[in-house]
Amino acid sequence: MADFRVRVSTGKAFGAGTWDKVSVSIVGTREESPPLPLDNLGKEFTAGAEEDFQVTLPKDVGQVLLLRVHKAPPALPLLGPLAPDAWFCRWFQLTPPRGGPLLFPCYQWLEGAGSLVLQEGTAKVSRANHHPLLQQQRQEELQARQEMYQWKAYNPGWPHCLDKRTVKDLDLNIKYSTAKNANFYLQAGSAFAEMKIKGLLDRKGLWRSLNEMKRIFNFRKTPAAEHAFEHWQEDAFFASQFLNGLNPVLIRHCHYLPKNFPVTDAMVASVLGPGTSLQAELEKGSLFLVDHGILSGIHTNVINGKPQFSAAPMTLLYQSPGCGPLLPLAIQLSQSPGPHSPIFLPTDDKWDWLLAKTWVRNAEFSFHEALTHLLHSHLLPEVFTLATLRQLPHCHPLFKSTGIGIEGFSELIQRNMKQLNYSLLCLPEDIRTRGVEDIPGYYYRDDGMQIWGAVERFVSEIIGIYYPSDESVQDDRELQAWVREIFSKGFLNQKSSGIPSSLETREALVQYVTMVIFNCSAKHAAVSAGQFDACAWMPNLPPSMQLPPPTSKGLATREGFIATLPPVNATCDVILALWLLSKEPGDRRPLGTYPDEHFTEEAPRRSIATFQSHLAQISRAIQERNRGLVLPYTYLDPPLIENSVSI
Length: 647
What we know:
Layout: E1 2-10, E2 21-28, E3 36-37, E4 50-57, E5 64-72, E6 75-76, E7 80-81, E8 87-95, E9 102-110, E10 114-119, H1 132-148, E11 151-152, E12 161-162, H2 178-197, H3 214-217, H4 223-231, H5 235-244, E13 252-253, H6 265-272, H7 278-284, E14 287-291, E15 302-303, E16 306-307, E17 314-319, E18 326-332, E19 343-344, H8 350-391, H9 397-400, H10 405-419, H11 422-425, H12 427-434, H13 443-466, H14 470-474, H15 477-490, H16 506-520, H17 522-528, H18 531-535, H19 558-564, H20 568-582, H21 602-626
Antiparallel strand pairs: 1-4, 1-8, 2-3, 2-5, 5-10, 6-7, 8-9, 11-12, 13-14, 14-17, 15-16, 17-18, 18-19
Helix pairs in contact: 8-10, 8-15, 8-17, 13-16, 13-21
């Protein structure tokens, strides 16, 4: 006989406690004990509790390998068993008669009656689990998760996703917490009520004037939204949004003028000034291009029974000498030059030029919402997450650290999936590929590169602990299955994407894991948190356009400009949605914060502390810089970045 002490920690969240009966079986190298009830006088397993139990094993089970947790509803006299309720267990600590305590991290909801098997908390790749029972447990855990979390093809040409019909079908471990869910719906309800009271949600007609639009602009405005309202017509602000707005990933260095964008020296002389030319500025590296060509011919939506319109513009930008601003030089609203596709210039009539810039901003909305936001920051992170759940057991170290309408969105995603490549997802390579290493005032790049570097160093330290050589990477079957599944289900086996289907070196593994973490945290924050700031003053980011793009100059008017913008109800719908998507509904977990302590060893804990310290240094530097900016760039300040895609 042997006496063990069992310490159990229950989560603090609402509903984390349970009335169910819990027992444990201790699995050792010799045998497995019978279920040992964890039962003190009174109620056990209340939310936030840490409780001690004494259990006696009838036989020596040998060296402890596993802890099997059993949960079942209590039986009441005459009434029989009660309905089971959920329990969030943080961890078990098992102290044997001889030797130190063993920690078994859990951090899971246990729903209903059943059993769960836990390994001691030391992170292990598959080759490090030498005992057959430990290998068997890893395989059984993955088999169970692969049955629970299955893939489906949502749309042809899209990344695959979780095979569940509604949020209600998800298990508690991958749902919003109760508090977060309640906050989300409270925020949505209050915002909806405010718009309803103003009488705007049901108005299907045009805005009467730009002045009337201020009624909706006053809806929960932010300092950044007020800045957009004050400066939206200015060329410098228009251009700056390609660097630090909600879609800072499209601008690229212009090495030569595209043949289908025939800008001439005479067109841009007033902006470039005397003594220079387009060719000279191309050679200096001061010209940049934003090309929305992927939108060409895209299917458009119908709103209030009225078909909407789309453009596929090209925008040429000029970086002024010294510390001057980035400025737009020319805009063409289609990919086909000609008499019906004029090149709009800053010297044109005010309303011609403003309308052309507004068409570009509408293209930014469509590109951002379908690709930068939905595809790159939601659908692909879902692939990373689902592959992690299906291919990496809890004890694996990587598990621990880690206006165009629906049809138009679908078309865009299908097109972009054929163009998607690995360098786009790796920020340093993306910056080099687009040739924007030196453009001044590009805070998305500056802050993003700092965060990428911090994540990369953290990942490198963790990988160094568990993978002593390139061969150890190659030999990790679970790791390779994870990478292979992401390649096949997320990137549809497209070798042209450059996405790895296997990893051969520690260096490649560090880059890959850094890419996953960065895109699921910092990249999402950069392209999500500013959505409301950009669209609160709707003319700055119109979600749809009701009239076709202009085919000649000199015809634009204030009235025509307003008639092109989306109707009142569509404006309200989008602003409500983007306000919710920009506002984190509580229960925050900033980047580098790991309340679920899956790592029990000292080395990875030190790495986490170093990572947190590095992020704090980055935050101080960003806040210091922002004090000198008219419009602070806050979206990549580490305390404001969620650890994962959380909304």
